[in-house]
Amino acid sequence: MLTFPNAKINLGLNITEKRPDGYHNLETIFYPIPVEDALEINPLSEGDGKYCLHQAGMEIAGEAENNLVVKAYKLLDGLFDLPPVDIHLFKHIPSGAGLGGGSADAAFMLKMLNEKFGLGLSTGTLEEYAARLGADCAFFIRNAPTYAEGIGNVFSPVSLSLKGYQLWLVKPDIFVSTRDAFSQIKPHRPERSLKETVQLPVEAWKEYMVNDFEKSVFPQFPAIGAIKEEMYRQGAVYASMSGSGSSVYGLFAADAVLPDVDFGEKAFVYKGKLTV
Ligand SMILES: C[C@](O)(CO)[C@H](O)COP(=O)(O)OP(=O)(O)OC[C@H]1O[C@@H](n2ccc(N)nc2=O)[C@H](O)[C@@H]1O
Ligand SMILES: Nc1ncnc2c1ncn2[C@@H]1O[C@H](COP(=O)(O)OP(=O)(O)OP(=O)(O)O)[C@@H](O)[C@H]1O
Question: Is 266 a catalytic residue?
Fold first, then answer.
């Protein structure tokens, strides 16, 4: 069985307070985008292990047992004693990009195992299991535009469609540590909630919709801020960093012509139409 976990972007990201446990409460909107990994499971007949992970595409740091698709398998295996599986993961979504690629893989693995082995888990239960694997993971179960608060794990649906807009996404060859990015933030409540801001026309977002991480990340990595400026120079209706970076996206009108821009040899670049 084959599935295609997709990435997300953050539309706005307000970090509102630091919690006693060291984490931060925030509000953001997760929006699915058509940048995808490929993930396949087949019955595993050789050896006496319960899983075997084969990886291709972009490299992922860390051991196989720390891969979130393996963690997802182990979680359900612990509850349902699943048959052994052979896992193939083709990595196309850049990691450490604020695109939630690892979280997407984990959530899609849960959904695929549920279907393949007829576990009968409801969407709510899958979300609960996904949340154990990472705060962002649960979003990818429904995979629809979502307003998130708490530590990014308390969801409500948001009525919004960017279908038809062109997305230009650039992830430069720069690593931003999410933990460090959080540690440099002075949390505050925005003047108006993102829930209201997102209902404004997309043309007004530039003025009101903010990713709080930009304030600390751009001075440290000016090349990331420069990508956002380039997006606006090229006519973006709205541009922002996603999550804690380092990727930056621009939303462009359906008929805009997006030129070739050199963002560096190792930069990941995607251009395409939003489909939801
Ligand atoms: C900022 C977002 O990209 C928004 O989409 C995500 O919430 C970040 O999620 P992530 O990359 O999966 O991050 P995690 O691996 O959960 O957390 C990394 C580190 O960031 C800090 N962290 C994370 C989430 C949060 N709400 N408050 C925090 O302070 C913690 O120090 C944590 O140890
Ligand atoms: N299947 C996976 N794909 C990518 N990274 C994985 C995976 N499993 C575990 N990881 C680990 O998770 C880390 C973060 O990866 P991810 O692709 O989710 O990045 P991110 O863009 O920072 O996500 P976020 O939007 O949640 O900040 C990687 O550095 C890697 O060590």
Answer: no
Distance 256 CA to ligand 1 centre (A): 34
Burial code (b: 16+ CB inside 10 Å, e: under 16) for 255-270 equals ebebeeeebeeebbeb
Q: Write out pLDDT tens, residues 153-195.
A: 899 999 999 999 999 999 999 999 999 999 999 999 998 899 9
User: pTM for the full model?
Assistant: 0.95
Rounded to whole angstroms, the Cα distance separating 82 from 119 reads: 10
User: Considering every ligand atom, which ligand is closest to the CA of 30?
Assistant: 1
Tell me, yes or no, if 37 is annotated catalytic.
no
Which residue CA neighbors atom 4 of ligand 2 most closely?
A: 102
Say if residue 65's pLDDT is above 90: no
Domains and CATH numbers, the chain: 2-157 (3.30.230.10), 166-273 (3.30.70.890)
